[in-house]
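Worked Example 4.2. Consider the chain below.
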Amino acid sequence: MYEELRRLQIEEKRSNDLVQVREDTYSRAFIYLDELKARLVSKWDTQTVRELENCSKVLHDVEMKRTEKILLHSFNEIYNGFNPLSGLTDQEKALYFEVKESIRKFKEAIDKREFKKGGQREDVIKLKVLKDVPKFKALDGNEYGPFITGAVCELPKKEGDIMIMRNLAELIV
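Applying the procedure from the previous section yields the following structure tokens:
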């Protein structure tokens, strides 16, 4: 296992692309590390200690390099139209899609000029509903509601202001 991880480490450092790995690469590495630890419990020897330390360091290096590439590729896919990644482990796929979705949302907000002030979008306000409000079509073309008395909701500022003026809701600061 150490030789496989070392080869992967070298290939990851040499290539700008992610090296194709087996789906179970990390799980097999963790099993191997556990076996080394178990060996040390039954019989302490310096060779096994060195192998455990080296394998742990190489695995950490591989993990860091692959994570860096996943983050960069996610960014480049959203901003520069790169093709989606393949050959990832399940853990790496989850990271990739989560990061990509966050970058996509960020870019979409910037493109729409939805800048945030104090953690809240400037074009959205938070309201507490004072009276039941049926479903309605707003000025932006979207449908909102229905809202029941006591509910807390976020609406575009224009629609929220109308609800406040009609005493249907109050602003939550």
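The CA atoms of residues 9 and 61 lie 7 Å apart. The chain has two domains: 2-111, 117-171. Compare this with Example 4.1 before moving on.
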